[in-house]
Specification:
Oligomer: single chain
Helix content: 25-40%
Number of domains: 3
Order of helices and strands: HEEEEEEEEHEHEHEHEEEEHHHHH
Bound molecules: guanosine-5'-diphosphate, zinc ion
Strand content: 25-35%
Strand order of the largest sheet: 1-2-3-5-4
Number of strands: 15
Structural class: alpha/beta
CATH topology of the largest domain: Rossmann fold
Length: about 350
């Protein structure tokens, strides 16, 4: 009895080994790999756009007369394929460049490898774990407007988040038709220009050439408060980008539920827009202390120069930051914003 069981096990093991061997063989065979771009992801499902063609196109099987045509999806440049990923790959996100293989017989693909990322946008999930959101964004367009008026720390928050993700930012003051003479928001934007941030004026239904030129050849995300005109701007620049929220029904173990997905839309010669309701709120996500310092370069430069190591930069007499404000290296408003953000995370930490 024991002997039989042992033999059975061995057979099972052999089969397993054989199977493992096969998968490994498949993994090694990358000769059919194509270049691809993840244009949408929701849960475990991904859509990949073909950026290259196979050296040898698979041949569509012949059908005899009278037989129904079998399913066949030709591999064409820019065609979009629903894909699975090899289980050994890390979590892929919209914007990822991948190697993949297409199966015209099923219309499905398999992603075999991920290319190195130039940037990765992440956000903390409910459990304070970092969750990747979008890859390879090269420019973040921060849209502000005279109306709705930005909260005092809002732009600083965005800049902190951009610095943290190591992605350059472009400030866009939209709805400039609503600007009053000496509008405080215009002065505010000028201050950021002096801090070294790029800043342009737009009007959604006006001439958008400068904005278009700035985002050409970039992978961009538009962020900003609701109502500042992001959708209107995006639709003006990419006329076929219907900005309806992408709601996808997904079957999961927990039953049917809907998710909003992050998608990539290509435009112009080599531009791409990555968009989702979540990304638009980028910058309003949880921030860490060290990250905040990164978004205030003029303040970071003076940190550590206060008399007391644990200086709160408020009531202390000899404070390098307050000195900085006095001699014009730091704007009073920026220091207030910095302290407010620090307060906010300290409070949040105490709650947790
Ligand atoms: P989003 O929430 O940032 O996507 O903002 P929307 O694109 O939905 O725009 C909010 C409102 O602002 C809409 O009523 C738009 O018509 C209006 N809007 C957008 N751009 C401009 C602009 O340049 N000037 C003015 N006056 N209104 C604008
Ligand atoms: Zn201080």
């Amino acid at each position: 009895m024991a002997l039989i069981r042992k033999r059975r096990l061995t057979e099972q093991q052999q089969r397993r080994i054989q199977k493992q061997h096969q998968t490994r063989q498949e993994e090694i065979d990358t000769s059919h790999d194509l270049e691809g771009l993840v244009v949408q992801h929701y849960g475990r499902q991904l859509e990949v756009q073909a950026l290259s063609l196979p050296d040898q196109h698979p041949i569509k099987p012949d059908t005899k007369e009278g037989e129904p045509e079998p399913f066949w999806k030709p591999i064409e440049l820019n065609s979009v394929w629903r894909c699975h990923t090899r289980t050994n790959l890390e979590l892929l996100v919209t914007g990822d460049r991948v190697k993949w293989q297409a199966d015209p017989n099923t219309g499905l693909g398999i992603i075999t490898a991920i290319q190195p990322r130039q940037s990765l946008l992440t956000r903390p999930d409910r459990y304070h774990k970092v969750k990747p959101v979008a890859a390879n964004i090269s420019l973040i367009v921060i849209v502000i407007a005279p109306l709705p008026e930005p909260a005092p720390t809002l732009i600083d928050r965005y800049l902190v988040a951009c610095e943290d993700a190591n992605i350059p930012a472009l400030l866009v003051l939209n709805k400039c038709d609503l600007l009053k003479e000496n509008d405080p928001i215009l002065l505010l934007a000028e201050e950021y220009r002096q801090l070294g941030y790029d800043f342009i004026l737009t009007q959604s239904n006006g001439n958008l050439d400068e904005l278009i030129q700035r985002i050409d050849n970039q992978t961009v995300a538009f962020v900003g408060q609701s109502g500042v005109g992001k959708s209107t701007l995006i639709n003006a620049i990419i006329p076929d980008a219907d900005q309806k929220t992408n709601v996808i029904s997904e079957n999961s173990a927990l039953g049917q539920h809907t998710t909003t997905s992050t998608r990539l839309i290509r435009f112009g010669e080599n531009g791409a827009l990555i968009d989702s309701p979540g990304i638009r709120e980028f910058g309003l996500w949880h921030l860490d202390h060290e990250k905040i310092d990164g978004g205030f370069p003029e303040i970071s430069a003076l940190l550590g120069h206060c008399q007391y190591r644990n200086c709160t930069h408020t009531h202390e007499k000899q404070c390098a930051l307050k000195e900085g404000v006095k001699n014009g290296d730091i704007l009073q408003r920026r220091l207030e914003s910095y302290l407010r953000l620090i307060d906010e995370i300290t409070e949040a930490q105490q709650k947790n």
